[in-house]
Structures are given as C-alpha cells and as structure tokens.
Write a structure and sequence with these properties.
Blueprint lengths: L2 H21 L6 E3 H8 L3 H9 L6 E4 L6 E6 H10 L9
C-alpha cells in the first residue's frame, strides 16, 4: 500500500467517524413541548396537555419577548416518561 492509499484509507475512516458523531442525538438539559413530542412520538398538543394536567413534570419558562411562557421538560423527565410512563391522576391539582 502506498502512502497515498494509506492516507486515503485514514481520511475515509475519519470521515465515517465524523458522520457517525453527527448522527448521534444531542442531549439537552431541557426540551420544549415540540421537541419532547418528536422524541416521544406524540402530538405537541398532547404533550402540552400532559404538562397542564401535571401528568409529567414540567415548568413554565419565559420565551421570546414579553410575558409569554412555554412549558419546558427536563431530559431526566423524558427518560422517566419513556421508562415509567405518565404520572398518575393523584399528581393533578
């Protein structure tokens, strides 16, 4: 194998490794209802309702300008939902 071929093989391996890294999911601390819905395979409206009904642990945080707020869901809570499911009705206000 020549030096050019060796370099070409190494570059190909590096490109494949970078491609795999880019395809991995980025873990965030908090997710919007839209992002959470995509991860959970549900409609955004459903996730917002779960937040409103306290079926999942979420908190309202300021977003954009003005007084508007949006539900934010922690990464740990998404993992809990995927492994344990929704919180029971006793968590509702």
């Amino acid at each position: 194998m020549t030096d050019d071929q060796s370099l070409s093989v190494r570059l190909s391996w590096i490109e494949d490794a970078l491609r795999m890294l880019l395809q991995q999911k980025v873990v965030q601390k908090f997710y919007s209802t839209s992002d959470a819905a995509k991860i959970l395979g549900k409609a955004e409206f459903t996730v917002r309702e779960w937040c409103r009904l306290h079926r999942i642990r979420a908190e309202k945080r300021p977003c954009g300008r003005g007084n508007s707020k949006e539900w934010m869901i922690a990464h740990e809570e998404l993992e809990r939902i995927q492994s344990e499911g929704l919180l029971g009705s006793e968590n509702r206000l």
